[in-house]
Hints:
526 residues
Amino acid sequence: MSAKRLTRAFVVSVALGILFVFAASAFAPGSPVVAQSKPVPGVPASCEALASQAFPDATITLARAIPAGTFTPPDASPTAKPNPALMNLPPFCRVAATLKPSADSDIKIEIWLPASGWNGKFQAVGNGGWAGSINYGAMGEALKRGYATSSTDSGHVGGGGPWMQRPEKLVDFGYRAVHEMTVKSKAIAAVHYGNGPRLSYFNGCSGGGRQGFVEAQRFPDDFDGIIAGAPAINTTGRAAFAMWIAQAMHKDEAGYIPPAKYALVHEAVLKACDAGDGVQDGVLENPKQCRFDPKVLACSSGDSSNCLTELQVESARKTYAALTNPGTKQEISPGLMPGSEAGWATYGSPQPFGLGAQMYQHMVFKDPNWDYKTLNFDRDMALTDKIENRVIDAMEPNLKRYFDRRGKIIHYHGWADPQITPMSSVKYYESVLETMGGAQNVAGSYRLFMVPGMGHCGGGDGTSAFDMVSALEEWVEKGKVPDQIPASRVRNGAVDRTRPLCPYPQVAKYSGSGSTDDARNFVCGR
């Protein structure tokens, strides 16, 4: 029997076992009689009845039918602007549970089950940053498509903090919470509908992109398709890079580049490289080909708003450059790409990037008062690379088990991302090609789409609006390989540019005639 069938058989057996136990307890001497009809496949049972169910290492804390258009997140401020993703939701069964796969685990999850029109599929959604909360917005988007959907806080509440010093909680965040959520969600769906989902998908960006790759690498039977955007697969390396830039900007405050100069640097980048792809449109199609030295902006004397001081030039160079271990000469993290300048405040603010500082404070040095200026990139990298810390990374390039069961991955990343360097995605993809024997062994299962001009998980000057879910569905369910994905740029509520997103290393090439804002005038090629 295939691994996929074994997994589905396990979910069904768990669900049937739960129904058997429930029926036996209902008619045991001294027990109240509970009317419980056997679920009809595809027809939802009572939502509230799920509160009585028992699942291994799990406690259901809420099971409530939510009428159409009435859901409000439990932590929403009365004055907060409504989340469009949660407006006009169809009716659903809202289930909350606490999972305890270890003695120190406290994983919160929610599962939303469509009251009608279930498409028979399951979509888990990811988190950002250190997680710490349920991603209701992403769940709302999945529910509107007819999916049963789930999300987890990954085992803690809030962002980075002392929980990172507790090994089991770090494991929950690193890989266990999403897997446990997935197994329990499928079992709950099987009880509710009388059958489990026929297909399962994962959709996440940033920290959620990392979660997607963790699933493919560690739990290949969980999902049939994975969307991983701007994945934080090299989380430890990103933290080190963040401290590197903070030191460059602030060990001598003369090296600090104020936000008022970001546009100056960005315009110089476009002047040097924009036309290199054949279209002068304010976006770099392939920043790898851009050769830009910030020295062209060096002040002739003193400092002014239209130039960079000598130390600011060096700070800009370090922002673009890869960080390497001075002792081993191994790359710790790639640098940011030309075109990312509008978002340099992520790493270049007066205080260091919070996610990076928290990793060192709580995981590496276990000192909340640790000073980033003391980090030594030779001596201290051995501490960063300790096995217990690398549990938060997802760099394993051997995806054979996932590919063997015909799992598909759509991986995307904005070239102008100022938070997670785009080259981390490119380098990981290339490591998979090398490990798996070349593009011919990978293209049928995994494709990377680099998005020109897009920032972190969206935004920017490029065509950052696209539908990866439909592309993945077409690939998994109909065998339609995503040779390109339609994308658009939306400004002031209207589409003003369309382009195809091309599978890396291809890029969108202008045909030479027609509007450069129309995707019909571009083809994917090298």
